[in-house]
Amino acid sequence: MKVLVIGYGSIGKRHVEVLQDLGYKVFIVSRHIKLPNSFISLEIALSCEKFDYIIIANETKLHKNIIDKLNEMNYNGIVMSEKPLVSNFETINNKVITYVGYNLRFHPMIQELKLLIKDEQVINVNSYVGQYLPTWRPETDYSKSYSASVSEGGGVIRDLSHELDYLIYLFGNWVELCAQKGKRSDLKIESEDYCQIIFKSKLNIPISLELNYLDRITQRYLIIQTNTKTIRADFIANEIKINNEIIILPKIHRNYTYIEQHKSILNNEGQACTFEEGLEVVKMIDAIELSAERKEWVTNE
């Protein structure tokens, strides 16, 4: 199988590593590097080789253009786009089989939680993720990263949209929400470093979520209240606490969720985030920004 990875930044390199480890022949599209099996454009790549699987891993603002080109060129393989799918919600005429890279769905924690709540009546949910932005990519200047730039698709809402996807995946799509966001710290960025969201899911579950670039401790957790259980899932400690019982999950390799995601997509197992589900997350992102701007509730219509 031949795979094409579009973009060779940190996430593009990771996909190349994972896919090569899975035994696939991997090619790259990048204007910035010259490597064996690399091309400077998508058009040149598709004129030279036939690819079974394409990964879109360049800047979010360029995703829509790539998807349009693949449709124009009648590409008939499988595509996975990194998250978020596009910068803003819009109707996209896409005939290519496309998935979105919300690989946190494949974390054993999420899979265990899905089983734990299967027969439970969930009362409410609290979710939190925070990490100090300068520690994300220590080898780079955070102030020059895409995370720092609004125009490049940065900011906690898009950077940490994994939380939006897994909350929808576990508890149903959002119905209405309100949010506040902003740049509150002295970080040298123009994007928002903080966001709080309250929303109700279609299962009538109230959910609260905080996202930030500020937490020097690095925390990622989820608290679920049901009629019989309090469940606290700690992604950093890799443990789930159910009332007074603690379940320690096996440690996973840093690439585990990426590996499982690619395998699920290529084997058509039905667990990966679909194109339509990815668009719903983008629609939610737009609603969060609108709510924060207008200081009012927004409904999913």
Q: Report the span from N to C terminus.
A: 41 Å
Measured as a percent range, the helix fraction is 25-40%
- Counting structural domains, the number is 2
The share of residues in extended strands comes to 25-35%
Query: By CATH's scheme, which homologous superfamily of the largest domain applies?
Result: Dihydrodipicolinate Reductase, domain 2
Mean pLDDT score, rounded?
Answer: 96
> At CATH's second level, what is the architecture of the largest domain?
2-Layer Sandwich
What does the overall shape look like? globular
Looking at CATH, which topology of the largest domain would you report?
Dihydrodipicolinate Reductase, domain 2
Strand order of the largest sheet: 14-13-12-11-7-10-9-8-16
Rg is 19 Å
CATH class bucket of the largest domain: Alpha Beta
The largest sheet is: 9 strands, mixed
Strand count? 16
Tally of DSSP helical segments:
8
* Content-based structural category: alpha/beta
Helices and strands, in order, run as EHEEHEHEEHEHHEEEEEEEHEHE
Report low-confidence residues grouped into runs of 5 or more: none
Domain GFO/IDH/MocA-like oxidoreductase: 111-223
Domain Gfo/Idh/MocA-like oxidoreductase N-terminal: 1-94
Pfam families: GFO_IDH_MocA (PF01408), GFO_IDH_MocA_C3 (PF22725)
GO molecular function: nucleotide binding
List the helices and strands and how they pair.
Elements: E1 2-6, H1 10-21, E2 25-29, E3 38-39, H2 42-48, E4 53-56, H3 63-72, E5 78-81, E6 97-100, H4 108-116, E7 122-130, H5 156-159, H6 162-171, E8 174-182, E9 194-201, E10 206-212, E11 219-226, E12 230-234, E13 239-242, E14 245-248, H7 256-266, E15 273-274, H8 275-294, E16 298-299
Parallel strand pairs: 1-2, 1-4, 2-3, 4-5, 5-6, 7-10
Antiparallel strand pairs: 6-15, 7-11, 8-9, 8-16, 9-10, 11-12, 12-13, 13-14
